[in-house]
Design goal:
Blueprint: H1 2-16, E1 19-23, H2 27-39, E2 44-48, H3 51-60, E3 65-69, H4 78-87, E4 96-101, H5 106-113, E5 119-122, H6 127-152, H7 156-169, H8 174-187, H9 191-204, H10 208-220, H11 224-237, H12 242-254, H13 258-271, H14 276-288, H15 292-306, H16 314-328, H17 334-353, H18 358-374, H19 378-388, H20 395-398, H21 400-412, H22 416-429, H23 434-445, H24 450-468, H25 472-485, H26 490-506, H27 512-522, H28 534-548
Parallel strand pairs: 1-2, 1-3, 3-4, 4-5
Helix pairs in contact: 3-4, 6-7, 7-8, 8-9, 8-10, 9-10, 10-11, 10-12, 11-12, 12-13, 13-14, 14-15, 15-16, 16-17, 16-18, 17-18, 18-19, 18-21, 21-22, 22-23, 24-25, 25-26, 26-27, 26-28, 27-28
Length: about 550
Amino acid sequence: MSAPDNKSASDTSAFGKLAYLVIDDFENFRLSMRHMLRSCGADNIELVAHARPAVQYCTYNHVDVVLCDHNLGEGKNGQHILEELRHKKLLKRSSLFLMVTSETSREMVMGAREYQPDAYLTKPINRAMLEQRLGSLISQRSALLPINREIDRENYPEAISLCMQALPRLPRYKTWLMKTLGELYFLLGDLSHAIKVYDEILSQRELSWARLGHSKILLANHHYDEAVKSLRQLIDSHPDYMEAYDLLAEGLERMNKPAQAQKILERATDYSPNALLRQKHLAELAESNQDMDTAAEAWRRTVTLGAHSIHDSPSHYLALSHNLCDISEGDTGKEGVALADEAFSMLCNMEKRFPDDNTLALRSKIIQCRLYAGQEQVQKAEEILKSIRAELTNTHSVGLETSLDYAKTLFRLGYGDEAKALLGELAEQFGEDPATLRKIESLLDEPVSFRMKIRARRLNRDGIAAFESGDLKKAASIFTKALEMIPDHPALNLNQVQILIKEYEGNTSNKDLLERCQHHLNHLADLPVQHGQYRRYLALQRKLKALNL
């Protein structure tokens, strides 16, 4: 009889050394959990009903075990709490987070899994279940505590050394130790040792985390084809393994296959729709692919998910409003009006949610101005523009993004010269930043509505194809149509000059072709030196001058 008593005393001691936090909006359940924990030997137990006091408690107190209900009524749920605690690094590696729930829907489980709770407990919970599940986790925590402490201190070499020492001593935790070793080697940039860890595991057994780690190393070593193939196989075998989708999308983007990357993220968000950062990535990727409808829906979900998330940001509201503004511009029918109204509503919500940011209020007015113009309510647009002009005279004080947005609005309302002058100032100010210069170039080149921009780009592609096939007249006709939409577009004008010069070389008696070339070059007289097409402009100018001699 003495052995069981000793074991019970040992278990009680293990429970008693730890600090607990129970989060549940029902008082009876909180009290019941405290009673069960005490009967297991726990003593230091804090009870809270909602997210705010839970996060606040973790901010100022060390917690070893969190038992959190998923559904906490109005406001943040258990997933949001776990997300925030991970983001703010308020949980140590050795801390345990158990999600308690009576709901087992795939959407809930997938959403919570994104932030990796240590276990799920399904209501109703009895003492035996709690002692068994939690006792096993506490035993593992105790055995691996020295390693986790070093990882928390970011002393990765020492953590690796402790993992190596523990492998022969703690065979029951071999999977955890090997997984941690692979991650630590990767963090240190020791890719050769990391891949050896994953290869050793995969040679014995196909495990999802090892296949993912192996693929991560392949990507880091620029073996994109192998990585993508491996990740596709992983997803086919385990369609609910969400990290694989994110890594596959990253690999496809690196291979310059953004449309395929978007499809992968669309599949991922179907499986797990409650991951804000993935919805945001999908929205950004869809925008870069000019799939504005998909982008709008992903931005809507991002904004909705942000209501209780630590990752909430006014940039999400602005991005959705921009998107809706682009889609609705020029569409005064029922659908266009509804999209514009949604954008107005989104901007209003943003200002209420982030009331103390003056820059946001200014950016909101800039977008409202463009929305009114897009709905052909020019007088309202002009009134807003007049009210904000004084605040936008100094690009240094309002910031880059606000200035770019203002330039876009000036173009939309017919103040092209003012917009170009503003962009010229920005080009001088950010002349050493290639990414910013590309944004400025893009706006200078295509200061038109989204729909017109897409049509012009399509014509540009068609014109280049006709030129490359040798059909110069067709190519010239296509570029003429494109230039009717965007007369000052550098690449379109220079493409047309190139075609006309080629025509002239086949018929040198037609001097009209050279005059037309000069006309197109004159459109680019104010092209900034920093522009990517400037050297091409100078080269074609010299060539035209030589042909005129």
